[in-house]
Design a protein that fits this description.
- This protein has a single domain (2-273), classed as Alpha-Beta Barrel (TIM Barrel), CATH 3.20.20.220.
- The protein is α/β, with parallel strands linked by helices and 279 residues long.
- Helix 2 (49-61) links the parallel strand 2 and strand 3.
- An eight-stranded parallel β-barrel has the order 1-2-3-4-5-6-7-8, surrounded by five helices.
- The protein starts with 5 loop residues before the first strand and ends in a 6-residue tail after the last helix.
- The chain contains ten helices and eight strands.
- Helix 1 runs parallel beside helix 10 (266-273) and helix 4 runs parallel beside helix 5 (148-160).
- It has helices at residues 17-31, 49-61, 77-89, 116-127, 148-160, 174-186, 203-213, 219-227, 232-252, 266-273, and strands at residues 6-11, 37-40, 66-71, 94-98, 132-137, 165-170, 193-197, 257-261.
- The structure holds flavin-adenine dinucleotide (FAD).
- Flavin-adenine dinucleotide binds at residues 41-44, 69, 71, 96, 98-101, 115-117, 136, 142, 144-145, 150-151, 154, 158, 167, 169, 196.
Length: 279
C-alpha cells in the first residue's frame, strides 16, 4: 500500500493437494509485497465451506488481514450466523458479502437470505460494526439485472444496509467504471469503489469467465488475443501491458486502489503490479 491507494488480492480455495501447494507458494510470494488485505472466495450454498476456512487460516498464518467472502444464496440464516460467529472468534474484521450463484447440481434451495443487501442487513443486525463489509459492484451491469437503473438501485440498497466499500466485477473498459462511479456519487454514496482487476493469461479461460459473469471483452481486444493462438508467452506479455495500462489509468483518474483476481497465480498478478506506479 502506498500513496493512499490500496492493493488487495483475491484467492480461491483449492480442491486438490497439488493446487493447495501452488496456492501456499503464490500466497507467500504475493503477501511479501504487503497488500492491504487478502480475500478468499466462498461457494454459494456452502459448497467450499471447509476449503474457504482452511484458506482463511493459511492467510492468517501468513499475517494477512483476511476478508472471507460470504454468499447467502442457498444457506439458512442459522448457518450464516454460525459462520459469522466463527469468523468473529478468529479475529476476522472484514467480510465480502455476496448473494452468490448456486453451483449447478446443488438443487434449487434458495435459502432464507435472497440478496446481498439482506445479507449486509443480517450482518449488521447480528454483529453490529464488528465487520468492515465490502460488497460487489457491476460497472457493466449484473447479467441478471432488470436494467442498469434497477441494478444501481440495488447497489445503493447494499450501501444503505451498511456496506463500507465495494469491489467491482472485472471490466476492460475504463469508461464503464468512471460512469458507474459518477452515477453512484450522484446518489450521494461516498464509499470507496475499488476496481476488480483480472490479469489476462489465457484467452479461452477468460472468454468463458467473461461470458458467465457478464464482463465484456471489447471486440478489438478479442481479435488481438485470438491472434496469439498457442503462443502463450506473447499473449501473457501483451495481457500484462494491457491490464497494467488499464490499471494505471484507473488509479491516475481517481480509483482508490485495485483488487486483483489472482486466480492463485502470483506470476500473472506481479506481471501487472510490477508495472504500476501506485505511489
Ligand atoms: P446482489 O447484489 O444481491 O444482486 C444480484 C442480482 O439481483 C442483480 O441483478 C441485482 O440487480 C438484483 N437484485 C439485488 N437486490 C435485489 C432485490 N432486493 N430485489 C430484486 N432484485 C435484486 N460468487 C460466489 O459465489 N462466491 C464468491 O466468493 C464471489 N465473490 C465475488 C467477488 C466479487 C468482487 C464480485 C464482483 C463477485 C463475486 N461473486 C462471488 C459473484 C457474485 O456472487 C455473483 O455475481 C452473483 O450473481 C451476484 O452477487 P451480488 O452479491 O452482486 O448480488
Amino acid at each position: 500500500m502506498s500513496g493512499g491507494k490500496t492493493i488487495s488480492l483475491e484467492f480461491f480455495p483449492p480442491r486438490e493437494e497439488a493446487a493447495r501447494d501452488k496456492l501456499a507458494q503464490a500466497a507467500r510470494e504475493l503477501v511479501a509485497r504487503r497488500p492491504a488485505y487478502v480475500s478468499v472466495t466462498y461457494g454459494a450454498g456452502g459448497s467450499t465451506r471447509s476449503g474457504t476456512a482452511d484458506t482463511v487460516e493459511l492467510m492468517q498464518s501468513l499475517g494477512m488481514d483476511t476478508a472471507p467472502h460470504l454468499s447467502c444464496i442457498g444457506s439458512s440464516r442459522a448457518e450464516l450466523l454460525e459462520i459469522l460467529d466463527g469468523y468473529r472468534a478468529q479475529g476476522i474484521r472484514r467480510i465480502v458479502a455476496l448473494r452468490g450463484d448456486l453451483p449447478s447440481g446443488m438443487g434449487r434451495y434458495p435459502g432464507e437470505v435472497h440478496y446481498a443487501n439482506e445479507l449486509v442487513s443480517l450482518i449488521r443486525e447480528h454483529s453490529g460494526d464488528w465487520f468492515h463489509i465490502e460488497v460487489a459492484a457491476y460497472p457493466e451491469v449484473h447479467p441478471q439485472a432488470a436494467g442498469a437503473a434497477k441494478d444501481l438501485d440495488h447497489f445503493v440498497g447494499k450501501v444503505e444496509a451498511g456496506a463500507n466499500g465495494a469491489i467491482t466485477q472485472y471490466f476492460f473498459n475504463a469508461d464503464s467504471y468512471f460512469d458507474f462511479v459518477d452515477r453512484v456519487r450522484a446518489r450521494g454514496v461516498d464509499i470507496p469503489i475499488v476496481p476488480g482487476i483480472m490479469p489476462i493469461t489465457n484467452h479461452k479461460q477468460l472468454a468463458r469467465f467473461s461470458k458467465m459473469c457478464g464482463a465484456e471483452i471489447p471486440r478489438w481486444l478479442e481479435w488481438r488475443l485470438m491472434d496469439f493462438g498457442e503462443d502463450r508467452a506473447s499473449l501473457r506479455a501483451f495481457g500484462a501491458d494491457f491490464v497494467a495500462d488499464l490499471s494505471q489509468r484507473l488509479l491516475d483518474q481517481g480509483a482508490p486502489g485495485l483488487h486483483f483476481y489472482t486466480l492463485n497465480n502470483a506470476e500473472a498478478t506481479l506481471a501487472v503490479w510490477d508495472k504500476l506506479n501506485v505511489g
